[in-house]
Amino acid sequence: MLCESLDHDLRWRDPVGYERMHRQICHYALDRLLRDAQDPRACMAVMRTIGHLRRRGGIVHRYISRGDGEDLRASRANPADHDELVALTRETHGEVTAASVRFWLGRQPEAFSLLRCRRSDRLRAFTSRLTLRAPEREELENDPVIAEIWHDVGRRMSVPPAAHIAIARHLVGPDFKDLATGPSPVTDVFLARMLHSWLHEPATAASYLVVTDGRWWRPLMEHMGQYEVACAGHPDAIFGHDWLADPPKVWRDRHLDEELWAERHPILFDCATQSHLSNW
């Protein structure tokens, strides 16, 4: 309460100086802190910072948990993990997604990141982030979701020769499957990595996110300027962003006015979004 009172007083007394300070802190968090966050605890700490800076925006902080991630450790997938990853996918997301996991483990095993319990070594979740320049026919035929994404890419842009498309293809684990209870340390780590890839990976022409629970992710994706890709015949929701048209350094400042002066703009979201969020 005291901190909020001091914050309010500073904004009232020196709005120009307050905005300059907020912008500098926000850029520091999104640039240096986010860029250097590697282990799960660092990822969660930077997400709490970002959530605090954007607390007046009314949405980002709703997707950030209060956990500390002390029991999580991160690793890359190795061949001994493959069967376990496929089995967890089959258990939580079904056979079709499990088949896509096995396929991409064979094509881009380096794209898979794991989160395990530090003490028990139990697999909590894993994600995959594929990079594609010109997918091969076999890849399009074996993964219809990638075919849908590549069709969308072709409609929107000509990918520069040195650029690539980044696709968060798999978010697998109970924390990603049962989102009705809200965010968790696992989703915090994923959000930090997602923001890192958007802001700090060069040569990304466009990025896509594939999720099973579009209803839960949709308000955040809309807030973050991600468009939804029509995906007839597939249960997954796909969100994308054209980083050639909306570069990272422009995108990161999109909500600064909202973060700073939300009291001046009491209606931030449409009624449908407000109703959806009120049901959480």
Individual helix count: 13
The unreliable regions are 264-280
- Count of DSSP E strands? 7
Shape from CA axes? globular
Mean pLDDT figure: 87
Structural class: alpha+beta
CATH fold title: Aminopeptidase
Strand order of the largest sheet: 1-2-3-4-5-7-6
CATH class: Alpha Beta
Sketch the major β-sheet.
7 strands, mixed
**Estimated radius of gyration:** 19 Å
- Can you tell me the number of structural domains? 1
Strand content: 15-25%
CATH superfamily placement: Gcn5-related N-acetyltransferase (GNAT)
Task: List the secondary-structure elements in sequence, H or E.
Answer: HHHEHHEEHHEHHEHEEHHH
> How far apart are the termini?
25 Å
Give me the CATH architecture, please: 3-Layer(aba) Sandwich
Q: Helix share of residues?
A: 40-55%
What's the oligomerization state? single chain
SSE map:
Blueprint: H1 2-13, H2 15-36, H3 40-53, E1 72-76, H4 82-93, H5 95-107, E2 112-117, E3 123-132, H6 137-142, H7 144-156, E4 164-172, H8 174-177, H9 185-200, E5 204-211, H10 214-223, E6 227-229, E7 237-242, H11 248-251, H12 256-261, H13 271-278
Parallel strand pairs: 4-5
Antiparallel strand pairs: 1-2, 2-3, 3-4, 5-7, 6-7
